[in-house]
Amino acid sequence: MRTIIYKITGNDTADFKAVESAAEIIKSGGLVAFPTETVYGLGANAYNPEAALKIFKAKGRPADNPLIVHILNPQDAENIAYTNEIYYRLAEKFMPGPLTVIMKKKLNIPDEVTAGLDSVAVRCPKNHVARKLIECAGVPIAAPSANKSGKPSPTSAEHVADDMTGRINMIIDGGGCEFGLESTVVKIDGEKLILLRPGTVTAEMISRAAGVDVVISSAAAGKSEAVDAPLSPGMKYKHYAPSAKLSLIGGDDSDVLRFFELKLKINERCVVLCYDDEAETLEKFAPQIISLGERSDIAGHSKKLFSALREADKRAADEIFAHLPSSEGDSLALYNRMIRSSAYTVIDL
Ligand code: TXA
Ligand code: MG
User: How is the beta sheet containing 214-216 ordered, strand by strand?
Assistant: First the structure.
């Protein structure tokens, strides 16, 4: 299959035409990768079961891992899910934006999209290209992240092209993603909420907006034993993983820096994900280091993480070392992705 790549130019007429042709592909049952504010998605018509199955095939995705359905406006959820007041409180505060809400599904969403579950994940993205695509297609768009299953999610069109060229009909290149980590996933369970995947919208923000408690699932908290208790089927699979083994290093700043230096010295194929202030000290190992930015800039680290892991693979790293991030507050999403990328490999100095 030939994969068309269209780069958004800023010329409204040309861009609109390209998005319209992408929407035609969606309507006729094909696959289009598109940018969102979190990561790139791989989209298909959510009402078309055969199109949904093509997504699983292109990604090599296990058949029991359901897809998120993307809608233009919060009230469009009425077509696909049984909403309630909690949903609308969350929608008012966080939609459009990086939040996915799971509710009981209605019949017009095929089982192929939800992997047989009786619930559906609903997300209303903020990225304007994603929104234009959903609007032109005139149907909700089922879309997981546009990576091969098990690889880090793509935060640029190049990442998508690396994984999906020849497997999908089109890639819309809308530049880098604003957040770089996938959306927060929360499930409405009667009168309570369960956080299944942490993201930029935190549990505290959700609890405050909805006026109810949020239970943090052990998978979301990054606990390894959670792999056997999959509330969210996707959380049990190997995820976000580069080819090289990633280890997370905890300890005093100076000890961690010394550890990095030693590893760089003894293994010239290892790659270290460090911070800007360390990059200066480690300058003589420049080809082996990738900085995630300033030490305190958690949003910046989140934005760069997946592309850094892919870059380490491109540099043919055989081992990757990185800081163990905090699991508190707005660092939980970063912690969750890193701990899973490392298959829970932590070295405490
Ligand atoms: O930011 C995002 O959410 C991106 C962009 C493209 O929107 N999408 C994304 O999709 O990350 P995906 O498929 O890579 O992750 C969706 C997660 C999976 O862990 C899946 O198991 C879970 O959401 N999920 C989807 N539907 C579910 C459901 N009905 N019940 C429980 N978990 C569900
Ligand atoms: Mg994914």
Answer: 4-7, 170-173, 32-34, 41-45, 141-142, 68-70, 119-123, 99-104, 184-189, 192-197, 214-216
Contact of 41 with 59, CB cutoff 8 Å? no
- pTM, full prediction: 0.96
Residue 127 near ligand 1, beta carbon < 6 Å: no
At 274-284, the pLDDT tens digits run 999 999 999 99
- Supply 24's token pair: 């035609």
The burial of 262, by beta-carbon neighbours within 10 Å (0-12 exposed, 13-18 middle, 19 or more buried), is given as: exposed
Q: How far apart are CA 14 and CA 298, in angstroms?
A: 36
Rounded Cα distance between 105 and 116, Å, is: 11
For 210-264, where are the E strands, in sequence order?
Answer: 214-216, 245-250
Measured in Å, how far apart are the chain's first and last C-alpha atoms?
50
- Ligand 2 centroid to Cα of residue 198, in Å, is 13
Q: How far apart are CA 245 and CA 344, in angstroms?
A: 11
How many CA atoms lie within 13 Å of 247's alpha carbon, on the beta-carbon side? 16
Ligand 1 in contact with 234 (CB < 6 A)?
A: yes
Could you read off the pLDDT of 251-308 as tens digits, one per residue?
999 999 999 999 999 999 999 999 999 999 999 999 999 999 999 999 999 999 999 9
The owner of tokens 């791989």 is 42
Using the CB atoms, write b or e for 98-123: b if 16+ within 10 Å.
Answer: bbbbbbebeeebbebbbbebebbbbb
The verdict on the CB of residue 119 being under 6 Å from ligand 1 is: yes
Q: Which of 100, 160, 188, 239 to mutate to test the pocket of ligand 1 (most atoms within 8 A of CB)?
A: 100
Residue 247 CB–ligand 1 contact under 6 Å = no
